[in-house]
Write a structure and sequence with these properties.
By secondary structure, this protein is α+β, with helices and mostly antiparallel strands. The chain has one domain: Flavin-binding protein dodecin (Dodecin subunit-like, 2-Layer Sandwich), CATH 3.30.1660. The chain contains 1 helix and 3 strands; from the N terminus they run βαββ.
Amino acid sequence: MSHVAKVIELVGTSEVSWDDAAAQAVKAASHSIHGITGIEVTNMTAKVENGKIVAFKSTVKIAFAVDV
C-alpha cells in the first residue's frame, strides 16, 4: 500500500516557549487539516524587548496524509 503526504509550513507564536509555539501551530492547523502525521521544526526565533524575550516563534513543516 502506498502513502502520500503533503507538507505545509507554518509559524506558531507563544509567550511561553518555542515548544509551545510549535504546539500552537499544530493546534491551529488541526482545525482545518485532518490526518496530521508529524512535524519538523525548521527554525526558532524570538522577539526581544528591553533585553527580554517577549515572544517565541517556531517555524514548522506539518505533514498530513493525502487521499489518493
